[in-house]
Design brief:
Blueprint: H1 5-14, E1 29-30, H2 50-53, E2 56-57, H3 61-68, E3 75-80, H4 91-107, E4 117-122, E5 134-137, E6 141-143, H5 148-161, E7 169-172
Parallel strand pairs: 3-4
Antiparallel strand pairs: 1-2, 3-5, 5-6, 6-7
């Protein structure tokens, strides 16, 4: 089998990267081939021919960024939750904090089509005690013990009003003074 369309689709299916993949958030588009791709061995279900993979791209990265609100958000909160090897808090506690954060940001209209706050779940933020741990940017403010009650304080004060919640801060980027 050569590296034509059928082979590419076959290999991408092995990787769950098909253009009709339910996990895909954008549509995959076929880019015309500019040069022939030589046959390349495939090992351990990973495609080792980057030219074949690069023929499938997501359209218009700037449009995708605009649709996600990446240029309109004011803050971005990262929460350490669902770690592979949970050390800072139990897995259930981290996931409960994450679910609370998602729900509250949506309820308050801070997340969605034109978000004021972006949220990202991190596997580990490398601070393995007193978790769940959160960090808010652009201030670079690090919070410990981020249970749903503490996250509510962070949402109400820091994310909405720009007022840092000092009782849970354990580190801060030096360009932003602690309040």
């Amino acid at each position: 089998m050569g590296w034509g369309n059928d082979r590419i689709v076959h290999e991408m299916k092995k990787l769950s990267l098909t253009k009709n993949s339910p996990s895909a958030k954008a549509k995959w588009v076929r880019v015309p081939k500019k040069f022939p791709s030589p046959p390349c061995p495939v090992s351990s279900n990973r495609m080792t021919n980057p030219r074949a993979v690069s023929q499938w791209v997501m359209p218009d990265l700037p449009d995708l960024a605009q649709s996600l609100g990446l240029e309109t958000c004011q803050r971005h909160i990262f929460l350490c939750a669902d770690a592979s090897e949970p050390l800072c808090c139990g897995r259930a506690e981290g996931l409960a904090a994450w679910e609370f954060l998602k729900r509250r940001l949506k309820e308050m209209g801070l997340a969605g089509a034109r978000p004021l706050v972006l949220r990202s779940k991190a596997n580990c933020l490398r601070v393995c005690q007193n978790g769940p741990i959160a960090v808010v940017y652009p201030e670079g403010t690090w919070y410990h013990s981020c249970t749903p009650a503490v996250l509510e304080e962070i949402i109400q004060n820091h994310l909405l009003r720009g007022q840092i919640v000092p009782e849970y801060v354990f580190a801060q980027h030096p360009t932003f003074p602690k309040s």
